[in-house]
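Ticket #4471: structure export looks truncated?
Reporter: QA, pipeline team
Priority: medium

Steps to reproduce: submit the single chain below to the structure queue and open the exported record.
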Amino acid sequence: MVLFSEMFVSELINDPVVDVLQESVGKVKDILITLGETFPKVSGLLVEFSGGQKKVLLIGEIELVGKQFIATRVTSDRIAWANLREGDLLLMRDVVDQQVVDLDGARVIRVNDLKLAKVGQDIRLIAADVGLAGMVRRLGLEKFLGAIFGIFGKKIPEQLIGWDHVQSLSGGKVLIPGQAIAELHPSDVAEIISQLKTEDKTAVFSALSENTAAEAMHELEPFIGAMLIAAIDTKKAVAILEKMPVDEAADIIGDLPPEKSEELLRLIKVRKANEIKKLIKHKDESAGGLMTTEYIALPQNLTVNETIERLRKSAPDAETIYYVYVLDEEEHLVGILSLRSLIVSSPDRLISEIMIKHFISATPEMNQREVAQIISKYNLLALPVLDPDRKILGIITVDDVIDFILPPISRRKKPTLG
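Actual output as written to the record:
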């Protein structure tokens, strides 16, 4: 029989355990739960005897559970004790004071206490207390501080998060269900990862799908991304890099140790690996270090209709198609075509007739701040980077400039590495 409707884990710890004759058995030191349900069920109590030995008192052996004591069904000599097994989850040891992920708020929180509730004849974990109230309750200062707050007509602030909004735990490590994390925005995924300790960063990142991991990489500092790529399985690392835009993959590869970067470049598809090698030759602070080699370039002798057909075939492989870059027979950049001009023009017109012939460009050595100023001044969506022969090396998109001026979330908040 459960003699309470709700109580906190800290209120059960060190409560006496007595048998059916009210003889002392021991003290509650922790609470065992069974995962697998939205609100996990308490399956036993870890009891410490007077000699210091600890055993598990299974829930089936308990007659009464109250806030002051726990009573067993039988006398102490007839209790069927169980041993703690590897992989068992204890609330005080594995959850309280640990970092967990609030999926609803897309943030990392520290658990100060846990709330239990009677549901039918079961005791279930229903919420995490992440506020001041949980902390002072565990310190035994709840009455004292409560009286002080009461003088001012206030209560100690309580901040509870329903366990259905907190990811599952296993062995004290943070693990996020793939389906739940996939529904979060990549910025939220990156913010969660950036707040975690190093070992938990890897645990969360390893649990992501390849698509979600690749999207989240864009929001992380390259050195954090490199650390994560180096820590996970090589096959998965290659799959993630394959799904990333080539310029972002180059940023990650460039921050890896030489041996690891060479290994990954050997395993990545040859065409993409070659593009990455071209990009990592440029200095990080230059236009060459900022550009991507994923763009659409077409010959100037195509008609509007032919160009649209080409775009339908090649667009899925391009990171952006803000503009079409028009080349002559020797592959010099001779014009830029906006998608708007393409759509509103007659299908039979040559693109050389409607392209912008006088355009702004950058050199690979140009400083990133100069590039940002040009894109901002001329209100461009992308800026081509040309070599001395006027051949296109890559483009810098407005997204890349925004990242430079207003860095990803992990740059604005100091990442946790320890």
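Status: closed, not a bug. The export was complete when the record was re-opened. Leaving a note from the reviewer for reference: The CA atoms of residues 21 and 379 lie 83 Å apart.
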